[in-house]
Design brief:
Length: 148
């Protein structure tokens, strides 16, 4: 029994070392490849590149589900919501907007008004809307300098 354990332990150690050496040497190559293919203007992971003009048009188009456009609720440039509890979208990070819309679409985030708005959006439409709202003047407040 003892003899067998002693015989196996070095073999396992050798295998573990071989595996870790292997993954260490491959990791940098994988990272380099991922960085190379990431388009700087792309939105949330996997979405196509957004088109600002298409996003503007869509943001002003009445949706079938509610009969309202994004602008009807979020206001001009996404900065004048019709209710103070509705978020401002102007100049928000496109990634953030795209992620929020994807979450409403797939049901991870639910809201009576927004879920129905996002349900039928395609990846391209999400990308377009996100870059358009993101390209607007911002009224978002940051805490930069607030604690100096
Ligand atoms: C009927 C009113 C209404 C319409 C139309 C509407 N929204 Fe919204 N939107 C809301 C409300 C209310 C919220 C906040 C929901 C919540 O609390 O999750 C919201 C939230 C969002 C958010 C998340 C913002 C954040 O800071 O997390 C995004 C992005 C968004 N809307 C984009 C859109 C887009 C794009 C359209 C058009 C396709 C649209 N909305 C149409 C009312 C509306």
């Amino acid at each position: 029994m003892t003899i067998r354990t002693f015989a196996i332990a070095p073999a396992l150690l050798a295998a573990a070392l071989a595996l870790s050496a292997c993954s260490n040497s491959e990791a940098p190559a994988d990272h380099a490849e991922a960085t190379e293919h990431a388009a700087p203007t792309s939105s949330s992971a996997g979405l196509p590149e957004g088109n600002i003009a298409a996003g503007e048009k869509l943001a002003n188009t009445k949706g079938e589900a509610t009969g309202q456009s994004c602008i009807d609720c979020h206001g001009a440039n996404g900065n004048a919501p019709i209710d103070p509890t509705y978020p401002k979208l102007g100049n928000q990070y496109a990634d953030y907007l795209a992620h929020a819309l994807q979450e409403y679409r797939n049901g991870n985030r639910e809201h009576a008004l927004m879920s129905s708005q996002a349900k039928t959006l395609t990846d391209q439409q999400i990308a377009d809307l996100s870059v358009w709202f993101s390209s607007r003047e911002g009224e978002l407040v940051t805490l930069h300098g607030a604690h100096d």
